[in-house]
Amino acid sequence: MKLPVAPVLAALLFTSAPFLRAQAPEPAAAPENQPDAPATPEKPAPPAKPPEAPTTPEKPPAPPAKTEPKPAAKTAPHPAKPGEPLTTRTAVDALTDAELDEVISQLKDNYIDSDALSDEELKRATVQGIIDRIAPGASIVEAPAAGAAQPSPFRAEILDGRIAYVRLGETTPGNVAELDAALQNFAGKKLGALVLDLRATPPGAEFEQTAEVCRRFCPKGKVLFTVKKPNIRQEQILTSKDDPRYRGILVVLVDHDTAGNAEIIAAVLRTQARAMLIGQQTKGEAVEFAELPLSGGKLLRVAVAEVSLPDNIAVFPGGVKPDLAVDVAQETTDEVLKKELEKGVSEFVFESERPRMNEAALVAGTNPELDAIQAAQKARGEKPKPPLRDIALQRAVDFITTIAIYEKKPGGAK
Questions:
Q1: 290 DSSP β-pair partners
Q2: What is the mean pLDDT of the chain?
Q3: Could you tell me the CA-to-CA distances from 368 to 177, 332, 356, 371, 401 in Å, in that order?
Q4: In terms of CATH, what superfamily is 155-325?
Q5: CB atoms within 10 A of CB 268
Q6: Label partner for 249 (CA 20 to 30 A): which of 100, 123, 192, 314?
Q7: Contacts of 147 (CB under 8 A, 6+ apart)
Q8: More confident residue, 289 or 72
Q9: Average of pLDDT values for 382-396?
Q10: What is the spatial distance between Cα 201 and Cα 153, in angstroms, rounded to a whole number?
Q11: CA proximity to 95, closest of 74, 64, 70, 71
Q12: Residue 173, φ and ψ in degrees, nearest 5
């Protein structure tokens, strides 16, 4: 049985190695005091002068005029690093306050289209620049239409009789209850691994429900994550309260659209439950958004609370990088997730065997192998479309299979 190289390497590197912390050098000892120099003999005091006649006192000299220190020249807040490509962002960051004013003035005086630099256009450019710089922390969006959000249901399945599969869907109390029922069902079947699919979990900021999902897999007494609201100086620390309901190999699937609750769950399970993340880097929106209405009907979407992991590890705005990257077009992922919800997951993971002659075919007077050849002949001249496959889930199954083979070998992990 041949296995893809990436899951095999990922399985062999599943355990982490400790890092050595560099020791800071001790400060050098201060030099010993040098012997004092010999004292210089004092000169005899000059003889006292006879008293002089009193004279009119002179005016004291005027104090020297105070000179104001010249302000130091302001340097660029973000100077460009040597050898760094000079993009527009790095070039603007390297400018001082005075140079920023100069650029605007020179553009107004010299650019061929003065209307493009009117006060209104400068305001638009300012708003656009701010939103681009702090993205994904702010955006301008249309107000959602009533009933536009599509529900994302929970789904559980057993793959190949040995792997538990769970699609979480929305982080709602109902889906969390279905997760509990599925984990209880899996426990009676003694399955070797579980795949938690977060690719169909819509973004949100239901932090308590997010913590409830994490508590099903994380050890008791662990800090899961902290919600920080800097504007009101408020922090909420969420911890695991009970023993985990699942212990075993855990693989989490993520993609580019994984955001909010889902990427928080992925990051926490990797930190506290040693989960293996497979897929693509997440969106980087592990925050709580406030949607502020604008007078024209649109909404200003602004991040007002941030989630961080223990040791102040941030998920916003960089997102979560997978342990095993799988490059799949988002359109393909969306299509396969939709089909799996309709037909089940196994069909899109395991390759189907070719038709074979059997006793039932003999009784019916048919030949499956011949029928398959005739169907292929009819389709000649047309390039056959490759079957739709869930590649990320296939890599997860490969990884779990590799772990199982390794553990069965003499001297393998126990």
A1: 302
A2: 81
A3: 45, 31, 6, 5, 31
A4: 2-enoyl-CoA Hydratase; Chain A, domain 1 (3.90.226.10)
A5: 29
A6: 314
A7: none
A8: 289
A9: 86
A10: 9
A11: 74
A12: -55, -35
Please give the share of the chain, as a percent, with pLDDT higher than 90.
60
Q: Which long-range contacts (CB under 8 A, 24 or more apart) does 306-309 make?
A: 306/227, 306/228, 306/230, 307/207, 307/225, 307/226, 307/227, 307/228, 307/264, 308/225, 308/226, 308/228, 309/225, 309/226, 309/267, 309/268, 309/271
Name the band, by pLDDT with cuts 50, 70 and 90, for residue 232: confident
Q: What is the pLDDT of residues 331-355, one digit of tens each?
A: 999 999 999 999 999 999 987 655 5
Write the burial class of residue 353 (CB in 10 Å: 0-12 exposed, 13-18 middle, 19+ buried). Answer: exposed
In this structure, what token pair is assigned to residue 256?
């580019």
Q: Which helix (H) or strand (E) holds 332?
A: helix 330-343
The residues spanned by each domain of the chain are: 88-134, 155-325
Closest to 306 in 3D by CA, of 291, 284, 280: 284
- Say whether 313 sits in a helix, a strand or coil: strand
d(CA 355, CA 350): 15
Which two three-digit tokens encode residue 120? 């209104």
**Encoded tokens for 363:** 């009784």
Tens of pLDDT, residues 192-210: 899 999 999 999 999 999 9
| pLDDT score, position 107 | 94
**Rounded Cα distance, 199 and 55, in Å:** 100
Can you give 356-386 as a three-state secondary structure string?
CCCHHHHHHCCCHHHHHHHHHHHCCCCCCCC
